[in-house]
Specification:
The protein is of the alpha/beta class. Helix content is 29%, strand content 24%.
Length: 405
């Protein structure tokens, strides 16, 4: 027996439907989909149900109607490529749905352009914070196809590119694909900021082929890769261990307090691709270094805040992870302030070279109910001599980790 719900991708227009798909639509008791899609079948005598942002309500409706009705859900593009299909499979169960795929918008868009897309990076901004991922791809020289939404449309995207030193990226906006008024516009970020586009669009971003791609980004990068004041940077080896103790994840909200050059925030961008990174620093010169490093490595989801601590965190969203690389005499207040905002199962990692601050950090975290772990890193680096090398010791650094049970 066929599953009670059939999910049909319509491609970019009804012209993409097969004869089989059309016959299934015509036999439906209930037709579900966005108004634009359902309106193509106004001649059918069946019940209709629109799709809005209340997906849980949609799931409840389908579960109620499934036992006694044949239901067809219409989606644009391909239901399982940034579509509603994945949600319905999770909600209803894979054995309760039958999916008939179709041409996705990206495939149709590149067909219009006459270009291959097997190596293209695809990013969706629909209800997602993917700017970090998007800019990292551009910084690496990749072509990126972007599904926009009414809030994060082509003009907004153009502003993001200009603000992050990608004003030389070529933009191609493909509007209302498959419709009579379909339009393709090749433009630049500067021009696109002042233009108006349909909400139904796909944007293709192409870095300038002569643009120097961003340097490779990896954990424990050599200090000279970053713009920084001499000596005022979390050293590569300490940075690598500190980041491992933070146990970052892709959707985390991460605070880097006393950020200095922003080196920890930059490398956090390797993992926190869909979340938010906040670097808080008081000194103007160091703020300039953070901005320079953010542009150099294409970390688009890094926000830079010039402020004293702990006051500078008041308006930030509550963090999953916190790194404290400075603090001085205010360390106790900074730890307490961060702990008050930290989410359940959050982690705070503190670096210090001062014995007094080691004691302060450990006692503060323990008093706040954290499980505390600490390790000392002592690095000696090889320095050339006339006939060999000698080891030159750097200051030992304490890495204190507080985990909220």
């Amino acid at each position: 027996m066929a599953p009670p719900v059939t999910i049909i991708g319509m491609g970019v227009s009804p012209d993409d439907l097969t004869l089989r798909q059309r016959s299934i639509i015509e036999a439906a008791d209930i037709l579900v989909g966005g108004k634009r899609l359902i309106d193509h079948f106004g001649n059918l005598a069946c019940q209709r149900r629109g799709v809005d942002r209340d997906l849980d309500g949609l799931g409840d409706f389908l579960q109620e109607k499934m036992p006694d009705n044949t239901i067809v859900v219409l989606t644009s593009g391909d239901p399982l490529f940034y579509g509603i299909g994945a949600f319905l499979v999770r909600r209803l169960g894979a054995d309760q749905v039958h999916i008939l795929p179709n041409v996705c918008t990206v495939a149709a868009g590149f067909a219009r352009l006459g270009e291959p897309w097997q190596d293209v990076r695809v990013v969706s901004l629909h209800g997602r914070n993917r700017t970090g991922e998007l800019l990292r791809h551009l910084a690496g020289g990749d072509t990126v196809a972007v599904y926009t939404d009414p809030t994060h449309g082509p003009a907004w995207l153009a502003g993001l590119l200009e603000e992050n030193a990608f004003s030389d990226v070529g933009m191609c906006v493909l509007e209302r694909l498959g419709m009579p008024d379909e339009r393709i516009t090749r433009t630049t970020p500067a021009e696109a900021r002042a233009m108006t586009f349909s909400d139904l669009n796909l944007v293709v971003l192409k870095p300038d082929p002569v643009r120097q791609t961003a340097p490779s980004l990896f954990s424990g990068m050599p200090d000279h890769r970053f713009a920084h004041e001499a000596g005022l940077i979390t050293k590569a080896e300490v940075r690598a261990v500190s980041l491992s103790r933070l146990r970052l994840f892709d959707r985390a909200v991460f605070w880097d307090l006393g950020a200095g050059s922003g080196s920890v925030s930059i490398e956090a961008g390797l993992t926190v691709t869909r979340g938010e990174i906040y670097a808080v620093e008081q000194k103007e010169r160091r703020i300039r270094h953070i901005h320079e490093n953010r542009s150099r490595f294409g970390i688009g989801n890094l926000q830079v805040i010039q402020a004293r601590l702990p006051e500078g965190t008041t308006d930030l969203p509550s963090p999953d992870r916190v790194f404290i690389g400075g603090g001085g005499n205010a360390l106790t207040d900074i730890i307490r302030s961060a702990a008050q905002r930290l989410k359940p199962s959050g982690i705070i990692v503190i670096n210090t070279v001062l014995i007094d601050n080691l004691t302060t950090a450990v006692h503060s975290l323990e008093d706040l109910g954290f499980d505390v772990d600490m390790v000392q890193i002592q690095v000696s680096r090889a320095t050339p001599m006339p006939f060999s090398h000698r080891l030159e010791a750097a200051n030992p650094v304490w890495i204190i980790t507080g985990s909220r049970p």
